[in-house]
Write a structure and sequence with these properties.
Blueprint: H1 2-16, H2 18-53, E1 58-62, H3 65-70, H4 81-93, E2 98-104, H5 106-117, E3 134-139, H6 145-152, E4 158-163, H7 165-207, H8 209-217, H9 222-257, H10 262-265, H11 274-303
Antiparallel strand pairs: 1-3, 1-4, 2-3
Family: Belongs to the ABC-4 integral membrane protein family. FtsX subfamily.
Function: Part of the ABC transporter FtsEX involved in cellular division.
Transmembrane segments: 21-41, 180-201, 222-255, 281-300
Amino acid sequence: MRAQFVLSEIGVGLRRNLTMTFAVIVSVALSLALFGGSLLMSDQVSTMKGYWYDKVNVSIFLCNKSDAQSDPNCAKGAVTDDQKKQILADLDKMTTVVQKITYESQDAAYKHYKEQFGDSPLASSLTPDQMQESYRIKLKDPEKYQVIATAFDGRDGVQSVQDQKGILDNLFGLLNGMNWAARAVMALMLVVALMLIVNTVRVSAFSRRRETGIMRLVGASGFYIQAPFIMEAAVAGLIGGTVACGFLVVARYFIIDHGLDLSHKLNLINFIGWDAVLTKLPLILATSLLMPALAAFFALRKYLKV
C-alpha cells in the first residue's frame, strides 16, 4: 500500500511540473552525454598513443654532398663509409634502448619521396644524390629519444636527429585540449542540471505543502514524506541518463561505423571499439540516478520541513 502511494505521488509530481521535469531530463541528458563523450575521448587518445607511439621511429639523417655546401652541421663534408660503420656499431651497442635499426639509402629515400610526393613540382627536379641516407631506429621505449639525440646529434656525418614522437605530441596535445574543453562544458551543464533539479523539487514541495502537512499530523516519517520527491528527481534523471546513453550509442554507430564511416575513411586511426562505449553506459546510468536523488535529498532538508 505504501509503495503504491509513493509511486502514485511520483506520477502526480512529474505531471504537475511537466515543463521543469522536461528541462531536467534534457539538461541531465546533455551533461551526461558530454560526460560519457569526454571519457570516450580520453580512451581514444590513450588508444591512439599506444598505437602510434609503438610505430614512431627516431631518424638519424646523414650528410650528403648538397648538405655539405648549405648546412652548418655538415661543414666537414658528406658522410663517409667509416662514419656510417661507426654510427651503426654504436647503435648496435645500445641494446637496452634500440629495438630495431633500418638503413635507408639515397635511392630508397628517393623512391619513397616519389611515391608520396610525385605530383609536386619539386619532385621532378630532385635526383637520388640529393636525398639523405638515414638510419631509422625503433626504440623499445619511445620516451628514450633523448638518449639517441645526445649520442648522435652533432656528430661528424650526421645532419640531424629527428623524433616523430614530437609531431604526435602536438596532435595529442590538441586532442587533450579539446577533451578538457568538453569537460568544462560538461561541468557547466551538470551545475545547470543540479540547479534545475533543486528548483523542481522546491516547486513540487511548495505545491504539495498541504499534503505534507497532513502527513506530518498523522505521524508519517520524514523519509516517507521525502521519498516521492526524491524518486521524482531520480526518475527524471534516469530518463535523461537513458537518453544520454542513446546519444553515445548512436554517435558511435553513425560517426565511426556508418554514416560518416570514419573507421574506413580514416583507417590510419585506431578507433575505440564498442566495448569502450558499453562499459561507460552503466556508469552514466548510475550517475543519472544518484545525482538527482542526492540533489533532491539535500534540497528537501532545506525547503521541506519534516
